[in-house]
Design a protein that fits this description.
8 helices; five-stranded parallel sheet
């Protein structure tokens, strides 16, 4: 899941960004209103966190412009302006929630998670499933059969991305952009390492492997019993 923070206070932005990344989110940051508006319009985010008082373009103006163009991504407003009429103004402008500074990170995280859940009615029962591998999107618990699988934050994002595209090849470029927020190839084996760790956790002790490497292309997570034609894959756990 990808979140955009539009906040001109760099220390505040770094604090929020670090906390959200540790919670398993991919996070972008814009330091002024104009840059934030452009980033919001040009990328696919799951939620926006917007400060009201920003240089170049204030937070409410950003929200009004986005909503005027039919932008329906959930928006959490952050502001030191906490009077009732100011909060009402923010919600009327198109904000979905309003959090007054100072605030605790745990409350910020809970509100973001709540907004994302409310805006994802398409996820039946808030669960992703491939064969007996399941992700509970609310608790972020991963299980295969009766086994609870513990994943690190990046591993979770990577597995969720693969499960959302179950049955389809997901390229390395797509994973670099979605999971690590890279729009270039860093020429490292970071994907290989994480794929190897995930495969060891979800496939190693089970009869039917679900995660396959598609040579020269990327990866596919699928139930082989439901696949009419298996792609050219390298199934060995030592594969990339």
């Amino acid at each position: 899941m990808q979140i955009l923070i539009i906040e001109d206070d760099i220390q505040t932005a770094k604090f929020i960004q670090k906390g959200l990344q540790e919670s398993g989110y991919v996070v972008d940051h814009a330091a002024d209103g104009e840059a934030g508006l452009q980033q919001a319009m040009n990328a696919d985010y799951d939620a926006l966190v917007i400060d009201r008082m920003l240089p170049k373009l204030d937070g409410l103006s950003i929200i009004e412009q986005l909503r005027g163009q039919g932008y329906n991504v959930p928006i959490l407003i952050l502001s030191a302006l906490g009077e009732v009429d100011q909060r009402v103004e923010g919600l009327k402008a198109g904000g979905d929630d309003y959090l007054v500074k100072p605030y605790s990170f745990s409350e910020l995280l809970a509100r973001i998670q709540s907004l994302i859940r409310r805006h994802q009615p398409q996820e039946k029962n808030n669960q992703l499933q491939v064969r007996d591998l399941k992700i509970d999107l609310l608790s972020r618990q991963v299980t295969r059969g009766n086994t609870v699988i513990e994943l690190q934050p990046k591993e979770y994002i990577l597995l969720e991305s693969l499960m959302r595209s179950a049955g389809e090849v997901v390229t390395r470029t797509m994973l670099l952009e979605k999971v690590w927020d890279y729009n270039f190839d860093p020429q490292t084996n970071v994907i290989d390492v994480h794929i190897s760790r995930i495969r060891a956790k979800i496939d190693k002790d089970f009869d039917v492997p679900l995660l396959k490497t598609v040579r020269g292309s990327g990866y596919i997570l699928h139930d082989p019993d439901l696949s009419k034609e298996a792609p050219d894959t390298a199934a060995n756990s030592t594969s990339n």
